[in-house]
Amino acid sequence: MQPTWPAASDPTQADPSGYLSERTIAAPCTPPGGAIGVLRVSGSEALRIGAALTGRALKPEDDRKALFSRLRQDTGQVLDEAVVTPFFAPRSYTGEDSLEIAVHGSPRIMERVLDAVFALGARLALPGEFSFRAVKNGKMSLSQAEAVRELVAAENDFALELALEKLSGSQHRLVAGIRDNLMQLCVLSELGIDFADQDVDEVSLPRLKERLGSLKEMLTELVGSFDRGSRLAEGVPVTIFGLPNAGKSSFFNSLLGEDRSIVSHLAGTTRDVVRERLNLRSAGKTVTLRLSDTAGLRAGADRIEAIGMERTLKSAVESDLLVVVIDGAEPGWENLLPYLSRIDLKSKECLFVLSKSDLMTPAEHVRLSDEIRGRFGVEGHWISSVNHEGVARVADALASAAIRRIGRGREEVVLTRIEHVRAVEGAIRCLDRARDASDLVLFATDVRHGMGELGPLIGETLPDDILGKIFSDFCIGK
Ligand SMILES: Nc1nc2c(ncn2[C@@H]2O[C@H](COP(=O)(O)OP(=O)(O)OP(=O)(O)O)[C@@H](O)[C@H]2O)c(=O)[nH]1
Ligand SMILES: [Mg+2]
After folding, report:
1. In the prediction, which pLDDT does 465 show?
2. Are residues 246 and 125 in the same domain?
3. Interhelix angle for 464-472 vs 129-136, to 10°?
4. Residues near ligand 1 with C-beta < 6 Å?
5. Are residues 39 and 122 in the same domain?
6. Which domain range does residue 354 map to?
7. Which end of the chain is more exposed for a tag (fewer CB within 10 A), N or C?
8. 3 is a domain residue
9. Which ligand lies nearest to the CA atom of residue 391 in the structure?
10. How far is CA 431 from the centre of its chain?
């Protein structure tokens, strides 16, 4: 939730140069409602503003010290008792002189202190402007700043771990390393051009081309990591699949713990894909699923239902996990198997859920369990959406399967942004052209373009307006 502070478009606060303005900025960086509220101030006026508010000069020996202070307005009226921490440039988050002011968390106090800071010359920060300045001042790389945003937005432990690693600079180090290697190739090819008549093997075209291979491999791996990256951050896609009336929507609702999909005894109740996100815990970790409840599959459906069924199959094909719900009382194998055969089950994790256990005798349970084992070589999971028996066990199995899908090596860099994937693909195309280049001049040009394509990942060649765009979807105060 964003605090309700004056909008950045407020004419008294707005600054036409936006992110490029060098004015001192201020914003709350904790949401309203906590016991303590923290305001951040950054820019050349920050220490003067701090001195005016606290009534004491802030000296270099106060750097990073928490100073208990009584904050006063220029009228002398006390605003609050607060802890003010000055940070002297460049040893601050933004690289500029900064203050962190911890006040009592009342929204009214926060607002009054912020108003006083504005009256002393600061303006409200734009979304992500503190991080923007940190990048501009070389305090962190662009991918680290993005990691800050991802850290705040992380919904599950895997996204959190990834963001923390990115924050430590892992992505930047990897991509900058590849870029440095390309740079070296450029330098060598320039040398090769200069020494063309002396036939130096080290800088000959074939030798330089040899060195492209491993760099291209690393870039290709990075592109391939995106699928997992988006699943880590946004959830693992799971499709609930089966014949009409099998109990798919009932199971979906039981998992979610809410009445999300319509359930009825009429076959063909669900007609479209119903999507919902669900966070599950397994082995002490939270993982996010993107669950889809789908239309049941049957022959002789009308036109609308047939469209729904196509969507079911598409969702199943695109999912990592397939939950096949089978009506325990009436499996209907002959109807189900043709649809299952249209999906490449080997490429997915597949769970068989046997529904309506409450309607069945123990002997019937055993018979159908044996049948599932015989047909698919796996154990079926019995559940009842009426008394919820077995649902928690399936949830656990789903979480473990999802975790298996997104598992990654320690510190393996995983791309999470589509624009980064596009940039790396662009670099790969340049390296392919370099591999086919007929002389060193063309080779050097293509390698140089490849380096340029990697710019957005390391934030070195981004024009300010693009940087501004990137930071505009941060929250205020970051
Ligand atoms: N006794 C019992 N009835 C169930 C159970 N699960 C579902 N039902 C009933 O079975 C009928 C069909 O349930 P749904 O969840 O709508 O089935 P569906 O697979 O979503 O059906 P479609 O949307 O038509 O494809 C409803 O009358 C449910 O109340 C269960 O575990 N036990
Ligand atoms: Mg349904």
Report:
1. 57
2. no
3. 140
4. 242, 244-250, 263-265, 267-270, 295-296, 355-356, 358-359, 384-386
5. yes
6. 231-406
7. N
8. no
9. 1
10. 28
pLDDT of residue 448: 92
pLDDT band at 406 (very low <50, low <70, confident <90, very high): confident
Q: CB under 8 Å to 42, separation ≥6 — which residues?
A: 24, 25, 26, 92, 93, 94, 96, 97, 98, 99, 125, 130, 133
254-288: pLDDT as tens digits: 999 999 999 999 999 999 999 999 999 888 888 99
**Mean pLDDT (the chain, rounded):** 88
Instruction: For residues 374 and 430, state if they share a domain.
Output: no
256 Cα–ligand 1 center, Å: 15
Residues 271 and 350 in one domain: yes
Question: In this structure, are 185 and 236 located in the same domain?
Answer: no
> Is the same domain home to 219 and 282?
no
Query: What DSSP designation does 12 have?
Result: T
Nearest CA to ligand 1 atom 12: 245
Distance, in Å, from the CA atom of 217 to the CA atom of 183, rounded to the nearest integer, reads 17
| Ligand 1 closest atom vs CA 266 | 24
Write b or e for each residue in 388-416: b if 16 or more Cβ atoms lie within 10 A of its Cβ, otherwise e.
eebbeebbebbbebbbebbebeeeebbbb
Number of domains present in the structure of the chain: 3
Which one of the ligands is nearest to 296 CA? 1
> Which atom of ligand 1 is nearest to 265's Cα?
27
Residue whose CA is at the smallest distance from ligand 1 atom 21:
245
Cis peptide before 107 (omega within 30 of 0): no
CA-proximal residue: ligand 1, atom 7 (nearest): 247
Nearest CA owner, ligand 1 atom 3:
356
Any domain includes 12: no
The rounded Å distance from CA 263 to ligand 1 centre is: 6
Which ligand minimizes its atom distance to the CA of 355? 1
Ligand found nearest the CA of 312: 1
Is the residue at 454 inside a domain? yes
Q: What is the pLDDT of residues 73-118, one digit of tens each?
A: 888 889 999 999 999 999 999 999 999 999 998 889 999 999 999 9
C-alpha of residue 403 to centroid of ligand 2, in Å: 27
Nearest atom in ligand 1 to 246's CA: 19
Answer whether residue 472 is part of any domain. no
Integer angstrom CA distances of residue 415 from 144, 252, 269: 13, 31, 39
For the chain, the C-alpha Rg in angstroms (whole number) is 29
Instruction: Answer yes or no: pTM beyond 0.70.
Output: yes
Check whether 168 has a pLDDT greater than 90.
no
